[in-house]
Amino acid sequence: MAVTTARKITGYSDISEQVASEKSIYKEVVRQDVLVNSDATSMKVYVNELSTIATYVPGTGVAQSADGSAYVTVSNLTEDALNEILDGFTVETAPADMVVSRMVAGMETRGESNDTKVFTGMIANGTELIAAAEDKPVLATVYSDILALKGALDTAKAPKTGRKLIINSEMENLLLHVDSKIILDTNRGDKIQTEGFVGRLLGFDVFSTELLPEGTNMIALQMRGYAAKEIFKVEPRLQNLDGSGTFIGDSAIQDRVAFIHGSIRPTFIQVNNGAA
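Predicted structure:
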């Protein structure tokens, strides 16, 4: 007879938030102020548009205008799960808390997976400023290429605050090269802890990652351009497998997570796909 007893892993939310903040970039670069539906299959994002201002004429007044703001529904859903068997003897004799360490390892893997999904979505549903047929940034042009991305966001009227630049390691090396003459500001009052944080440049928080798809050099965006949310549908637990007829004295660490993400304002996401 299968055993159904399970023990919730306490403190998972704090651990999850810490791991995601340190090992994953997506939470630093997208909107998360969203409304998720009850079964976690879609989310709504409020898109706030600027108001219409008209000239007032005394005695005549001014025509009324409608509020162009609205909720946008995003239904790009994927679910993933952790279901890792832990040997009972190893769990009991390991020098550290093996259950927590394996949970953290699973969260790190999920963070990488979510980053990859978000970057792929940004490229597919953003705006390609530099196409693959154009030249890839080199030491002499990397600064001007980032200026072009900034200019495209300016033209799209993206807010100056909340701008992010995601680059691959090759672009990072160009920026950090002594001959680039580029100075990255690394002073941040809120002390970004994310592993890939490089510094600030031209109003961007700059993040480096190995997870950008092949052929993409940089993604520049304002946070309102993309939204993402991770929701636990089954909270992390240690499932007892003893008495299942197959596993003797073993357990499994399990969870199930829904991940919803999508582009909200394509012009607020500018992509450099230039290739040499």
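Summary: The mean pLDDT is 85.
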